[in-house]
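Worked example 4.2. Below are the chains of a multi-component assembly; read each line carefully before continuing.
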Amino acid sequence: MDLTRHFADEAQHARYWTDCIQRLGAEPLRLDAAYQDRYLEAAGMPVNLMEVLAITQVFEQRVINQYARHARAPDVQPEIRDTLDRIMQDETWHLQWVRQALVSMEGEWGKETVLAAIRRCWDADQKVYAATLSEHAERVQHLLGISKEAE
Amino acid sequence: MATASDVKGRVARLLKLPPERLEDDRVLTDLVTESFVLVEMVIELQEELGVRVVQDDLKDVRTVGDLTALFASRSQ
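Applying the procedure described above to all two chains together yields the following structure tokens:
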């Protein structure tokens, strides 16, 4: 039941971002690949519910950290800050729920197996985040280059 | 306890594919392009057979035959 609510919240978050982008006068672009796809590439496909929750825990932690950092940035538009705050409220209980569910699975899978799955996901998270940051830096450099040429 | 043939029947049902398409040497990702469908099928299969597998167990599984052999051996 809670997991279903969790999934429903995630779908709702996409709606919040669509609304936010439109309120700011833009239209959302359809993405060919999501950030999550990179996780699956790096961590491998989960093959049981415990591994699904392990990758979810690591991903949600990354989302909360990134959103909190974004919300603290100077000059964030109020619409964006409101959307970040709204989503972070959901993500906080998601994360608590997933952590608790993983602890409750230790009896079935063994604590070491659960921790190994989480560790594998953390490693994947570090790789994906580093690659994404590097791409972001390249884009910013590219945009700075364009704006200098225009001056 | 499930035989390879029993496992194959379950895989066909879960993937909603005719059993004759599930030749042993058929690569799983050729049968189903959406990887989440494969994940759901593997999770359902574990629940139906009372078997537990982790990612490492499936690292060498590429074909229908690999998958059915793994689950048949685990359900012994």
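Take a moment to check your reading of the output against the notes. Residues 2-26+33-145 of chain A form one domain. The radius of gyration of chain A is 18 Å.
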